[in-house]
Amino acid sequence: MEKSTPEEFARWHDMVLPDGVVTSTGSYPPPPPAESPDEESAQQNTILNPEEQQSKQSKKRQLENGQLNNNTSSNGGGACLFSVDLGQMRSFRLFYSNQECTCGQLVIASLNARYKILHFHNGGLDKLSQILEQWNAVRAKSKKGNDSPLISTSLQCHQFAVLKPQISKSEQHPEEGLYEKVAWDFWRSCTNPDGQIEDDLSLRKAIFFGGLDQTLRKEAWPFLLNVYPWNSTFEQRDQIRNDLFLEYQNIRKKRLKGALKMGAKAWTYVETTVAKDVVRTDRKNPFFTGENNPNLEKMRNILLNYAAFCPQIGYVQGMSDLLAAVLIVLNEESDAFWCFAGLIQRSIFVEAPKNDTNMKLNIEYLRYLIKLMSPTFYDHLATCQDGLDLLFVHRWILLCFKREFVADDAMRIWESCWSNYQTSYFHLFVCLAIVSVYGEDVVQQKLPYDEILLYFSSLAMHMNVDVVLRKARGLLYRFERRDKIPCTLANVCQWQRTGMWDGTGGQQPEIECAGNHEDMDACPYMTTNDI
């Protein structure tokens, strides 16, 4: 059913009020009921007697002022429709006045801090909440006890933020929009007759901006994940693939024979954890649905074989999420294994099980990036207890945004990161972009830390990947063109490589000592003025 009008929308969602019920509102009164043609004609000809006319005008004034009792509709009632332009709104708040959360008030806040209040005396507020939950334009932020004067402090408030992310052209990379998605024709144009990719920088730049066509991923991912060298020939890649297939079979045989480099107790834990994670990973995806699905066995084999192959890492929860996407693209068990191994080497899992060094490094870099590029958000976090721990980004980094975006959108982010164009830390600029695009409400409403966690968690699967990626590329462009950067961010970009820092001939910024080095005796960028 096409819900193109407010009336159809109301009927579709069962929001039409029964006869005899008219909603009222203190700040946004519904229009008075329309006069019937006969009544209008009678008024024009002054047929109504003075008492009837005075009574009718009194009721009309009461209705316009929101004072008419719900059960005193003069025309038998009917639904009163209300529409609002979400582009002009900032948030919705639902204040519940009963324990069932069906009655209460809807408070709409505009961008210029004006408020409209709609009262739900006869139920329906729960239905409205359910509808708002389904819309990508609005996301729930909190549901908690509140001290609103409108209702008792023991009741609840449900708040929704209006999400309309937009970035101006000045915020974007100047080359934004020049690159289309890399497809087979462009890929083949980058290879010579022997199959070598001679100008991998141009190809990686195109992938950075445009991503890969879905049909090309199986061909391109082994290059991006360091399985094949960019300058390898067709013949060399065939030999590499055969050698890796045999090596994978040897890893599998050693595991099945029990020739492991970890203790029996540790291996039992790995097997148990893998078994639990495999059966609950992406089961809604057709590739993994159904009982006795052979792809589940492939996933289980790869995870166990990787734990045996790399016992210093073993298995960490979350790896199955990453492998699922790789396995869907590569399909073949051996190919997926080696691409997965390349992906893990790029991730924070490498040292995470023991000392969390990589995660700590990523968080430190991101903290300094936020301080430099989004100081207002940083200042708000600094006022929150443990705010600068950035716990809300841990899942983003650990699972490479897989649970924040739908599958294809997450893969677009992966490919931009894997391209290694100008930085190996583009994922941190993606984090910074999310904070920059969606974090304004956090600052304006001065959300406490627990609500910040809830707020960003509620954005999962509702963020615009195009906006986030354009913003991230723009932030990287702005960062690399700063006159000065702190020494704490000196390793974020590939400064030393010719052409990698700035293909248009830009200058490397001056690196200055930030003055806080807990683990260093002296900063290599310290000057005599810093001493």
UniProtKB/TrEMBL annotation:
What residue intervals traverse the membrane?
A: none
Where does the record place Basic and acidic residues bias?
1-16
User: Does the record carry Ubl conjugation as a key word?
Assistant: no
**Domain Rab-GAP TBC residue range list:** 211-421
Name the Pfam families on file.
Answer: RabGAP-TBC
| A Gene Ontology cellular-component term | early endosome
Q: Which PROSITE patterns match?
A: TBC_RABGAP (PS50086)
**Molecular function terms, GO-annotated:** GTPase activator activity
Q: Keyword annotations for this protein?
A: GTPase activation
Q: Where is the composition biased (Polar residues)?
A: 64-74
Region feature (Disordered): 1-74
Q: Would you tell me the protein name for this molecule?
A: Rab-GAP TBC domain-containing protein
The organism of origin for this protein:
Romanomermis culicivorax
